Amino acid sequence: MATISLRKGNARLPPEVNRALYVRNLPFNITSEEMYDIFGKYGAIRQIRIGTNKDTRGTAFVVYEDIYDAKTAVDHLSGFNVANRYLIVLYYQPTKMNKKFDQKKKEDEIAKMQEKYGVSTKDK
């Protein structure tokens, strides 16, 4: 397999490579068994979490036991077609995820302040 050649070559992985993957654009009705079938081909899986509420449907987190298995899965499954949907498989990067959440939180806070003090950005 490709993972064996990566290990033997002692290749340095980019810093964003992680055992945890963030998967987007999943069919809403996908089951955990189907996820294990798709992602299990590339190595031992520690955990899969599928989004179930309104905001997280169509997303999942997949955590591999080995970082090289995760890299192989990203390389092979990005753009993979599942139920006429192309998967987006990314390395999970908590700092980027938190920045997006913080940005939305700040925007909501600003909107509340503008509403409280009667300031409108549409006047400009």
TrEMBL record:
<dbReference type="InterPro" id="IPR000504">
    <property type="entry name" value="RRM_dom"/>
</dbReference>
<dbReference type="InterPro" id="IPR035979">
    <property type="entry name" value="RBD_domain_sf"/>
</dbReference>
<dbReference type="GO" id="GO:0005686">
    <property type="term" value="C:U2 snRNP"/>
</dbReference>
<dbReference type="GO" id="GO:0071011">
    <property type="term" value="C:precatalytic spliceosome"/>
</dbReference>
<dbReference type="InterPro" id="IPR051847">
    <property type="entry name" value="RNA_proc/Spliceosome_comp"/>
</dbReference>
<keyword id="KW-0507">mRNA processing</keyword>
<dbReference type="GO" id="GO:0000398">
    <property type="term" value="P:mRNA splicing, via spliceosome"/>
</dbReference>
<keyword id="KW-0508">mRNA splicing</keyword>
<feature type="domain" description="RRM">
    <location>
        <begin position="19"/>
        <end position="94"/>
    </location>
</feature>
<dbReference type="Pfam" id="PF00076">
    <property type="entry name" value="RRM_1"/>
</dbReference>
<dbReference type="GO" id="GO:0003723">
    <property type="term" value="F:RNA binding"/>
</dbReference>
<keyword id="KW-0539">Nucleus</keyword>
<keyword id="KW-0694">RNA-binding</keyword>
<dbReference type="InterPro" id="IPR034150">
    <property type="entry name" value="SF3B6_RRM"/>
</dbReference>
<protein>
    <recommendedName>
        <fullName>RRM domain-containing protein</fullName>
    </recommendedName>
</protein>
<dbReference type="GO" id="GO:0071013">
    <property type="term" value="C:catalytic step 2 spliceosome"/>
</dbReference>
<dbReference type="InterPro" id="IPR012677">
    <property type="entry name" value="Nucleotide-bd_a/b_plait_sf"/>
</dbReference>
